[in-house]
């Protein structure tokens, strides 16, 4: 009999993987879920009916269309770009990974502001790519002087700018973006995951500036369950990044459902409008709570400083059935909540719970 292997298989992990944590979402139960930047709304009834019918027609025994032709065509039409300027991912999370795999060698650098969406740095780390982080200024705007300095020193292959940024809700100004694109030795990603709630979009910027890439996702628009993100870029870059894409990364259900969603986009606009209106009501209501200091936002969430014990406030909210995102343990954001804009009833539940603590 072969000798029993007793080595802990964990020891086979790469050192840097053994040392990090998996992406974690706290499994709190709550009636009012305001911690994940999801839409509070299901699809409008007519669209929901069409989606149910499409689900019933899926060919479960067949592989999906490898190139998601119908879905890319629908997105191209909505965005006013060509199909070969679009690459699809299982969420924009997957696009982050593909873009980095295609463009960065181990030991290379990316640059991000800080704080921002954690997956840029996490994905880079897994690929042995380093991250230069430039702290945002106190009003959450970009520190352009330090950013330009870091660009010169680190020569990042990719610069990631989420606009609106998660978790601050602030957009990158056109002048700042222009200066960064001008100085960048590599690619500049403008991640517009939250653009449906913003006053403006950069549009198909890659047409004038071929070193730029635009990311978008259906996740915040009410379809987080589908896991569909996409990047738009120069077709030569799209073709190159496509070489890293896993076969059939977009499943048949997502392809068929997302095609209908994209073709029905105008039916969703009133919901985005409602969320933006609620965001402003929530902002004013948070301002009226003596221990909350919210920041203006262009996204479907609001970042707010908690001016008393954040852990206690978080615990009291949970007791009232309200879940927000608390950046527990973070050096800069340990006293901050990121609060997703919910339905009017959900936002009122949050405000009433906070009022009960003042
Ligand atoms: N970009 C930003 C800025 C985000 O906040 C998120 C979601 N948290 C993503 C991308 C990822 O979105 P998706 O659900 O499409 O993977």
Structural description of this entry:
- There is one protein chain.
- It contains 12 helices and 12 strands.
- The protein has helices at residues 15-18, 45-56, 69-79, 92-103, 119-126, 144-154, 174-183, 235-241, 252-263, 269-287, 310-319, 344-355; strands at 32-34, 86-89, 109-114, 130-135, 158-162, 187-191, 212-217, 229-232, 292-294, 301-306, 322-326, 336-340.
- Strands 2-8-7-6-5-3-4 form a 7-stranded mixed sheet, sandwiched between helices. Strands 1-11-12-10-9 form a 5-stranded mixed sheet.
- Strand 3, helix 5 (119-126) and strand 4 (130-135) form a beta-alpha-beta unit.
- Helix 2 runs antiparallel to helix 9.
- It is globular, with a radius of gyration of 21 Å.
- Residues 37, 91-93, 117, 162, 166, 191, 193, 217, 219, 229 line the site of 4'-deoxy-4'-aminopyridoxal-5'-phosphate.
- The site of 4'-deoxy-4'-aminopyridoxal-5'-phosphate has 12 residues, from helix 4.
List the helices and strands and how they pair.
Layout: H1 15-18, E1 32-34, H2 45-56, H3 69-79, E2 86-89, H4 92-103, E3 109-114, H5 119-126, E4 130-135, H6 144-154, E5 158-162, H7 174-183, E6 187-191, E7 212-217, E8 229-232, H8 235-241, H9 252-263, H10 269-287, E9 292-294, E10 301-306, H11 310-319, E11 322-326, E12 336-340, H12 344-355
Helix pairs in contact: 2-9, 3-9, 4-5, 6-7, 10-12
This protein binds 4'-deoxy-4'-aminopyridoxal-5'-phosphate.
Short account of what is shown:
This protein has 358 residues and is α/β, with parallel strands linked by helices. Helices cover 36% and strands 16% of the residues.
């Amino acid at each position: 009999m072969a000798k029993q292997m007793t080595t802990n298989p964990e020891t086979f992990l790469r050192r840097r993987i053994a040392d990090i944590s998996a992406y974690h979402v706290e499994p709190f139960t709550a009636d009012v879920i305001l911690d994940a930047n999801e839409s509070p709304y299901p699809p409008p009834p007519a669209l929901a009916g069409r989606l149910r019918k499409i689900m019933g027609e899926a060919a479960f025994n067949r592989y999906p269309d490898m190139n998601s032709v119908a879905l890319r065509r629908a997105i191209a039409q909505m965005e006013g770009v060509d199909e070969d300027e679009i690459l699809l991912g299982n969420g924009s999370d997957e696009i982050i990974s593909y873009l980095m795999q295609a463009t960065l060698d181990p030991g290379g650098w990316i640059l991000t502001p800080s704080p921002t969406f954690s997956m840029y740095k996490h994905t880079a780390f897994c690929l042995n790519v380093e991250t230069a982080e430039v702290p945002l200024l106190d009003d959450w705007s970009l520190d352009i002087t330090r950013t330009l300095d870091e660009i010169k020193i680190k020569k990042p292959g990719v610069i990631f700018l989420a606009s609106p940024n998660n978790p601050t809700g602030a957009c990158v100004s056109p002048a700042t973006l222009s200066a960064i694109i001008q100085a960048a030795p590599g690619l500049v990603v403008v991640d517009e995951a939250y653009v449906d709630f913003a006053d403006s979009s950069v549009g198909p910027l890659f047409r004038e500036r071929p070193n730029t890439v635009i990311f978008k996702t259906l996740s915040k628009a009410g379809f987080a369950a589908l896991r569909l993100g996409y990047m738009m870029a120069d077709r030569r870059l799209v073709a190159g990044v496509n070489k890293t894409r896993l076969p059939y990364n977009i499943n048949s259900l997502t392809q068929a459902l997302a095609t209908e969603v994209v073709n029905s986009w105008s039916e969703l606009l009133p919901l985005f409008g409602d969320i933006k209106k609620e965001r402003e009501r929530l902002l004013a209501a948070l301002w009226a709570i003596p221990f909350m200091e919210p920041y203006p936002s262009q996204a479907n969430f609001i970042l707010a400083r908690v001016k008393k014990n954040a852990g206690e406030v978080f615990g009291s909210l949970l007791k009232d059935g309200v879940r927000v995102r608390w950046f527990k343990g973070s050096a800069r954001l340990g006293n901050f909540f990121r609060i997703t804009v919910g339905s009017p009833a959900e936002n009122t539940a949050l405000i009433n719970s906070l009022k009960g603590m003042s």
